[in-house]
Fold:
Amino acid sequence: MRTFFLLDIDCFFASVEMALHPELRGRPLCIGGLRTDRGIVSCPNYEARKYGVRTAMPLRSAARILPSDAVFLRGSHRLYGEYSEKVMAMLRDFTPDLEQVSVDEAYMDVTGCLHFWGHDPLRMAEAMKERIGRECGLSVSIGVASNRVCAKVAAGVKKPDGLVIVRPGTERGFLASLPVETIPGIGPRTLPHLHTYGIRTVGDAMAYAERNACSGDRRLPLRAERLRTFSLCRFIASCAVPSDDAIVPHGHVEKSISRDMTFGADTADRERVGATLYYLAERCCKTLREDELTASTVTVRVRFADFTTVQKQASLPFPSSNEEDIFAAARRLLAQLCVPGQLVRLVGVKVSNLSGAEGSQLDLGVTAAEKFGALHRRLDSLQSRYGYGSIRWGITCGVAEHREEGE
Ligand code: DCP
Ligand code: MG
Structure:
């Protein structure tokens, strides 16, 4: 059985500032802007959270509810990036099997390294916390479990400075009493549906999956609504099962740009899925152009109504930041991933294997690709100024909702 750690730095941006300026400790602190700036709080420290300040709250609202000795800082992303790299490098000293999932969060598969710690995950986790505290001045929370979801949930239950170990065999008991939305992937669109079936806790979902397991197999056809509930509950129940999925370590964080969209209702309409794919490719390309990058690899991800998720990637014949090229590859991948009639819940596009735009343009000379590039940049600037809907390609006109869940 594998052992996974999920490590998350506590109130990351604020912690870096407190590590560098110890006089800030013990006072409410908000990173994101000054108290009269427009804009939002990107990170409140735990003292500010006690007053009800949350991430993404307008700065001015935070200023209203905090006492006058609260501190507001604009912050420095460059500095936080450096701290992030430092912490990740330290963690790689503990295990090479690390997958960084955000600026302050990483999964680790420590199965192969536990013998250095007398097979005791507690000792290993305490050593990690101690080293990050001593060398960076940051406090972190760690969850330990036999699968990623339990490790992630465990890391969140005793923040800050938490260390929660879910021993093998206790996963079910650990998750059962928690609200069902604790499970990553169960969000505001799915929750009301589960609530109408009386499913509020993870335990309720597990019981529903078990009660309906037999009817799911035999009493066909199940009504679509019940089938959806059953699929969701089966997915939630699977989060208590130990996982054998190894973490594939990267030498560095893979640089990529991705955009996902979840449909308001699951759809089998291939044109709609295709149009959404174009829209997402367009959004990725806009970011590529802004950052003066090109991509050589395109990945398409599809999640079906029953939550199974598939993805496939392809290499482009030459690096590009034009949606014609990215979409052409994405459309071929979509055709390979989806069978007509299958109900799709989410579709996503990722571009990776990025490089600077200059090199590829030299190779291409003044070609159709370059002319398209100029056209796209004009469209980007019009859309930035007047809104996406002011001028758009015909194919995306049917994409009514622009609710991306980008990374
Ligand atoms: N962040 C941001 N905007 C958001 C969410 C997060 O700029 N909407 C930044 C600020 C956070 C950092 O990312 O410090 C890490 O995000 P987390 O979700 O891990 O939040 P924190 O580390 O701030 O708090 P916690 O102690 O809950 O992990
Ligand atoms: Mg954090």
